[in-house]
Amino acid sequence: MTDLRIIPFGGVRENGKNMYAVSVNDEIFILDAGLKYPETEQLGIDVVIPDFEYLVNNQEKIAGIFLTHGHADSIGALPYLLQQLQVPIFGSELTIALAKLAIQDEADLKAFDDFHVVNENTEIDFGAVKVSFFNTTHTIPEALGVVLGTDEGQIVYTGHFKFDQTAEASYQTNYARLAEIGAKPVLALLADAAGTEDIGKPMVSEKKIHQYVEDSFVAAKGKRIIVAVVASNIQRVQQVIDATAKTHRRLIFSGQDVEQIVHAALNLGKLNLPMPKEELFADLKDLETLPAGQIVVLETGKMGEPVKNLHKMAKGENPNIRLGDSDLVFIATTPSFAVESYVAQTRNLLFQQGADVKQISTDLRSSGHGSAEDVQMMINFMKPEFFFPVSGEFRVMVTAKAAAEEVNIPAKKIIMAKRGDQYVYDGQTFEKKGGFTIGETMIDGDSLNDIGNVVLRDRRILSEDGVFVTVVTIDRKKRKVVSKPKMTSRGFVYVKANRDLMKEAGKLTIDAIEDYLKNAKAFDWNELKNGVRESLSRFLFNETRRRPMVMPVVMEVNQNRRPHHTKGQETTGQKGKKANGNKDQKKGQKNPGQNNNQKKQNNQAKQNKPKNQGNKAKGQKNQDQAKKQAANQ
Fold first, then answer.
1. What is the pTM of this model?
2. Would you say 418 and 225 are in contact if contact means Cβ atoms under 8 Å apart?
3. pLDDT tens digit string along 425-437?
4. Burial (Cβ within 10 Å: 0-12, 13-18, ≥19) of residue 608
């Protein structure tokens, strides 16, 4: 019997970070390797990726990574994963091009080139597993689903998909291929559940969205248009290009990521230009010379995510673009629920700058993810024995579960997985066994090191209650405090208005230190500081009902005191100086042209001056001798 296991590393009970492992005998097949953008409370974090420890420990078993499409939630973790293990990467032509862009800035990956282009006609034989693919409809061309054929049946992962009968050729689903897959036994279907939640409006086709974008551009006559879009949403970028050309405008890129992605898509023929490139595109420097009514700015941010950059623009922090009443800001992305409040705040700031604001998701229900009816249609094509809703938060997994039950999938065969669950097929059912903890790795800047929950907690405390610093000096030998504590507060209280609080905090600091110095059997800096920290934390909370981060800074005096010497005694250093002086005097006697008194003065100066000053004196002496010789000549 085949040893078959399914392990989610992300993408379940969360939005983004799609990554699933299917283990067949001694081979591991990784489906996607995505990231997610941080939630509001993850202060200062750039991106969040899965924990790769299990995969690194089992890297010799990994057959490859199979990518469904080129969005960051499916390929964004590759730069971090490939630094720890290097295995083959499989994906469509555009997906592989975007994956290469994602890792191009990593010095450790310059030589990595184990990429393999596949399409829905490709089949790869790994022995116990045959891997094949099928086209799906998403907001990026060449999105694929993945099929793992095993002796126990097929494991099908849809990737992100929806059904749209009006989709253009490079976005179309091959329904005949779906029927072909479903004609063979499908043991488990891992299906995109992200779009199954009913939000009260019918899903519209991309053709209608295309017309909506064009109408919005026409209505903004005379205004500069700033479009906020996810860089890898090629379908939306195409709609913006078409509307720009239709309204006789010029398109300007405001982010390096979007420019690279657009040019990669153009080179592969995945984007179409309705007019010559030089007539359509312009540079940022042209913002000052082109009339406002002829400008469209395509705005995105790091790794293609536009909201943070748009927020900075709304606060007037963008060095190139200053917003005003002659601007229309068109938000052509559907934000996740985790950042809805952040988007609302950004919209508010944009209106305060005087700009008009349109957001596509407030006027239309647009999504790259299938509705509950689409999931039901996929189930009817595949006829799976077991159903795993994935690619969404728990509430959408619940709505996908309800949709599956309506098309006769028994509730006991619907798996509501979470990260680290290991589902082992025993010939009858998928039983949860031997799961393990898969955490999140939080990336801040370019470091691969996990920031960790402790750092996030400290950042949250600093943002909410501020920091309180007390600086004090002690004499450990005399076991006493030798200087009055100095208090500093940032983001906690205004020091000048809270002198009594500061005075009492200083007294508590002294009491805590002297109590420790008096009673401690063995001196320990950490114990001393922790005692001060706990004493001050209790006091400050009782007085203010707030918990600032308390940072005691304790310094020690007379740490390297030199021993005293009685009169007439010489230290080793002094003896050395005298010896050097005598040696210098002997050297001086060899120069008959120099006065003996002058030599003594020079030697005395060498003893008294620091080394660098001695060097200066020596240089001056050489200059004087050179001048004397020149005069004699």
1. 0.73
2. no
3. 999 999 999 778 8
4. exposed
